[in-house]
What we know:
This protein is an alpha+beta fold and 352 residues long. Helix content is 31%, strand content 23%. A 6-stranded antiparallel β-sheet has the order 1-2-3-4-6-5, covered by helices on one side. Helix 9 (321-333) links the parallel strand 16 and strand 17 (339-342).
Amino acid sequence: MKRLPxxxxxxxxxxxxxxxxxxxxxxxxxxxFGTAYVARRGRRRVCLKLTADSLSWHREAYxxxxxxxxxxxxxxxxxxxxxxxxxxxxxxxMELAYGAVADVVDGNPWREHxxxxxxxxxLTAIDHLHASGALHRxxxxxxxxxxxxxxxxxxxxxxxxxxxxxGVPADAFNPWFVDDDLFEGSRSxxxxxxxxxxxxxxxxxxxxxxxxPIHTREVRDLPCSDGLKLAIxxxxxxxxxxxxxxxxxxxxxxxxxxxxxxxxxxxxxxxxFTGPLGISRxxxxxxxxxxxxxxxxxxxxxxxxxxxxxxxxxxIAGTSGGVKILQVLALRERGYPITIITARHFLRLxxx
Length: 352
Ligand SMILES: Nc1ncnc2c1ncn2[C@@H]1O[C@H](COP(=O)(O)OP(=O)(O)O)[C@@H](O)[C@H]1O
Ligand SMILES: [Mg+2]
């Protein structure tokens, strides 16, 4: 799209809709979308976005209406067309943010409690959007804004779309901030869990101060509790095992704590191991069998118990341990009564 002519500092733009006058101050950003300025309306400073693309302007104004008044969405004050330099321009006056996450957090990571509180707040807006039947598709560090120091708010609904529950065609996204399947085209629909994948990545960005998305195997190195790692690991992991909706991700972010149970005996029980047990796997398997148990490698609905070895910091969301725990948590969510037991309890059951 052709570049818009720059608007000089001090220029007054008047909304033909409301009659409000906006005095243009600094240029904020210039790009494919058009230009964004800081503008003054009376004593209030706002962000004034100008575009020549009436379609994206309509979409943004419509989505803003849908989410009007939500405390975690950048508020749109008004949308109006103006005639300037022999062409139509479309303006949106909105709440001015301190900056995008990408600008504010880059090299300046947040502490865990702040990340959890703010991302959970943001999820209330995403939940509201999903409940109204739309998907955002662009929840990147460039489109989530920081307002008043540390309040996260959702913005830029430029490619948001309404669609059925099973998702919309993944025909528009930021290729840099999606999972490999969507990027490579082996999955072709964008669903709620893809929005939530982006939220999981956003949490990692806030924790590390590095705006690049991470791989699941890097979750173990995040500077946070195992509980939060587990939640992020699930949000950005295998699509079938991800959080189904924004509310359950919000609950997960509060920290997934493993609830350990007990077994009377191993007789006729199907079990599986994960994490360091204190004895070798071969020995553990041999002794478990002697106690009447069946040992399987990968968790399935047939599983009665998962034996979880000592959780030294950081292994829980690792390449092997984390995956089995996540699989078991997913199976339990589907109603399979699988007990998670500690390695110590297991050792007692086999008489050690
Ligand atoms: N409300 C706002 N407050 C502060 N800066 C903003 C605001 N809205 C947009 N910007 C700036 O303008 C840029 C582009 O805006 P955005 O709506 O994300 O358009 P797009 O991503 O489609 O180019 C942002 O990256 C940001 O720098
Ligand atoms: Mg943007």
